[in-house]
Amino acid sequence: MVTDRDCRFCAIVGGDEHSHVVYEDEHSLAFLDHRPLFPGHSLLVPRDHFETLAELPPELLEPYFGAAQLLSRAIPRAMEKPGSFVAMNNVVSQSVPHLHCHVVPRRRKDGLRGFFWPRRKYDGEEHIAEVAQTLRSTIAELRGDGA
Question: At a CB cut-off of 8 Å and minimum separation 6, what does 16 contact?
Answer without folding.
Answer: none
